[in-house]
Each structure stands twice: as C-alpha cells, then as structure tokens.
Specification:
two-stranded antiparallel sheet, alpha/beta
Amino acid sequence: MASTGGGGEEAEEERVLSYGDVVLRRGDLSILRGPRFINDRIIAFYFAHLSQASAHRDDGLLLLPPSIPYLLANLPDPASVAAVAAPLRLASRRLVLLPVNDNPDVSLPEGGCHWTLLVLDNASPSAPRFVHHDSLRGAPNLPAATRLADALRPLLADRRAPLVEGPTPRQPNGYDCGVYVMAIARAICGWWSDPSGGEGDWFEAVRREVDAGSVTAMRAELLQLIARLIQDKANARSQEGDKEH
C-alpha cells in the first residue's frame, strides 16, 4: 500500500532508524527530499511521533498507522472488523485519526496513489461523526473513506454517525497528499493538546496551520526530526558504552 520495498541483506543495510514499531530506511529519506509520493512507513513513523508527544494528556486521542485502517476497511465481514478493532477501543476514544489510501487491490502492497485523513470524532458538539480531509478537489478518496466509515460504524454507540467533508487546503501538485495528511494530523494534535482543546472542533486550526508553504517546509522538518532521533540514539549507545568501560 503505497510503500517502498526491499528485502534480505540490502533492506537490513538500508535501515536508518527504528522508532517504536516502525523501521525507516534510507530510501524513505530520499522520498522526503522529494518531490515524491509519501509512503505508509513515513506516515506511520510520524503518527507514532505525534502519539508519543500527545500521550501526556490522556488516551482520548488515537492515531493509527495506515496499515490498520486499510485492514479494517478490507476485512470480509463485521465480525472480523469487531475482532481486530476490539483492542483499539474506538468507541471510547474522543478522536481517532485514520489515514486512508485508495489502493483497490489488497494483493498489491505498493498500490494506491492518494492519501487522505478520516477522523472519527466523538469529541465535538456534532459527534459522533466521521470527518474526511481530502486535499484534492472533488474529494476523490471519498469512496475509500466511506468504505472505512461503513466498516467502523457498527462499533459505535450511534450507528448513524454521518460522514462529512472537513475543510482541507488544496495541494498544488500530484505528490504531496501524504504530507497534507501529516500536516493536518499535526494541526489536530496541536488543537487537542491546547488547554482549550476538545472545545468546538479543529477546523480553524487546519485552516490556519496547513497550506502549500507549511507542507513544503514539513518535508525538511521531518528530515531534521529523523536526523535528531538518529543522533539521540547514537548518543545513548555511546553513553552505554562508556558505562561498560
């Protein structure tokens, strides 16, 4: 699903950072330098980073890596969805951020050409609802988002939860959709972490913080973040080595 591959010794050699359950490779850095389509590994890494940064508040906010929403949307029956989703406690979360990919073929792990963000909103006055953020005009990923919402709706207290389109800045090219997903997620997490977070909705934060300029800058910011985390791990290993001598 919109990912880059590699196997065996070559893949091992290309590893640059392990972060939680995500392993970033050297090719991911090239993707971020762009202009290239963002893969699921980069989104999973950044969502894990946002989750860690937001964990101090409570567990009402959940950010899922792309593989889980894709799995939930493509399971064969509601019982399978319920079994996979049970540990996630979706109905008890106030916000759940779910990346959506338009890959129509589960047998093609590198399929798909567009990312969007679906938010399960149990927090705002209009909740429960699903809010879809699509950075392309006409919301071409709405069918994929609808399929995911339809799969999750039976898990909610109110099975009539509507799906609405949220305000989303338009991408000016054909490759930055994944960066828009991450930028919108960052704006939502910032709104959530604010002392007044949870009041109203996050729409104004998205309008204020996400545009073509901030998205372009975000690629460089992510490269800097990854470089800092790599250096932090190297420093930690060095300190452990010093203690052993």
